[in-house]
Structure formats: structure tokens, C-alpha cells
Amino acid sequence: MIKVSSFNINGIKARLPRLLEWLEETRPSVACLQEIKTQDEGFPAAEFEKIGYHAIWHGQKGFNGVAILADGQAPVEVQRGLAGEPEDEHSRYLEADVFGIRVVCIYLPNGNPQPGPKFDYKLRWMERLRKRMAEIAAEDVPAVVIGDYNVIPEDKDTFSVKAMADDALTQPESRDAYRRLLNDGWTDAIDTFNPQGGVWTFWDYQAGAWQRDHGFRIDHALLSPELADRLVAAGVDKEYRGREKASDHAPVWVQLRG
């Protein structure tokens, strides 16, 4: 079995003890991290090596940043960043081969406030992602594109449609761009096992959102047809959101036949 997990850690230095705890307790084969919020030279690779994980990372000072960790095997980098916008300096995309599968770790732009340039950037980024995913699909490799998509795909994926109505995460354009990925042949693993919805991956720090379970689902794992055939289970490590000094996201994971 291969377990691929994703965790928007919301600052790797601030939450390193929580991250190491989660890695040791759940022991994913591959862990994709978002919002590491550190420059490359500040990434704590040695801490992960102590517990058997090899890492590659794409950092940025104070913002964004993604990383791929693998248990006992070094991920082989395929690509960092997305083509199509040379002036885009955000660290949001990292792609590697490990354990015989293509793993893509993404941190998609939030897009708020909308309408405006941030929302326009989000939609352009999603179109660039779609192009890259089409290239990966054309290689016929078993692939997973996992991470913080900053899209609430359907009304069933939020505690309150009304509360989120003006947010970039629920706009028709965001949802349409996400749906296009599914229509291209990618499988939403968590939705596959939770067709009724009601599963959250994010709870804001504000207004007692965690205590009231006012969350929504924005962390997703999309599988290529080759990998979807090997899907055994998928879920959310919800309890980690309730720990001391937790990230505002909970980890998500997929279990795959080897």
C-alpha cells in the first residue's frame, strides 16, 4: 500500500512539532506540504531526515511554499512552477516521481478579494494547471495532484453556502475551472468516498469556527485514471486540527494499492 497525504501546515517553523508528530503517528509514504512560508535555505530538512523522510521543496520568504517528503526514498523532481506566466514568482507548484507514481503538490491561489486582480490570477493559474495536468495525463503515468486547491467544489462542501457566497472559493468561475479538471478524467478521491459531502478540511481561526464545526473542503486529491483504479480509501485527519497550535487545515490522504 502507498499512502499519499497532504497538509497545509501554515508555517513550517511555527508548527514543526505538530508536523513531526503527525508524520510519525500517521506515517504517510508521501507527504505534500503547502504554505511552508520559508525560503529554501530555512527549510528544516534535517528534522525530517531524523525520522526517515527525504524532502524536496520550493520555498518563498514569508508566503506560499510547497514541499514533497517521502518515507525512505528521495523524491525525484520533475518540475517546479507552472509554465505560461514567466513573471509569476509565487512558489505554489512542485512535481516529483516517487514510489513509481507522479506526485504533484499544489497551493492554488486564494483569489480574494473578488472581483479583482487576485481573482483573475487564480483563474489564470487554474488554466495553467489544467494544461500541465493534460501533459501529465498524456504520459499515461499514475499521477496524483494533491494539495490546497482553494476551491469549494459544491454547496455540499461548506458549512454555509450563504456565509461563503461572496468568497472567491465558491464563485462559479472557480467551480467551473475545478469541474473542468474532473471532466478531463481526473477523480476527486475524497468526494468518491463522501458523495453526500459534509466533510471539511479547513476551519478558520476566527469566530470559533473549529469549535462550531464551521468548516469547508478545499484540500483535494485528484487521481489520474491509472491511479484511480488503485484507490482503496481516502479521508481527512480531522483530529489534528484540534491540537494545540494547530494549522487551520487538517491533513488529507489517499490509500493506494502498490
TrEMBL record:
Class of this enzyme: hydrolase
Gene Ontology terms, MF aspect: double-stranded DNA 3'-5' DNA exonuclease activity
EC number assigned by the record: 3.1.11.2
Highest taxon of source: Bacteria
Alphabetic keyword roster: Hydrolase, Magnesium, Metal-binding
Cofactor (UniProt): Mg(2+)
Family annotation (InterPro entries): AP_endonuc_1 (IPR004808), Endo/exonu/phosph_ase_sf (IPR036691), Endo/exonuclease/phosphatase (IPR005135), ExoIII-like (IPR037493)
Record-annotated Endonuclease/exonuclease/phosphatase domain positions: 6-249
PROSITE patterns with a match to the protein in the record: AP_NUCLEASE_F1_4 (PS51435)
Matching SUPFAM superfamilies: DNase I-like
Family: Belongs to the DNA repair enzymes AP/ExoA family.
Descriptive protein name: Exodeoxyribonuclease III
Organism: Novosphingobium jiangmenense
Lineage: Bacteria, Pseudomonadati, Pseudomonadota, Alphaproteobacteria, Sphingomonadales
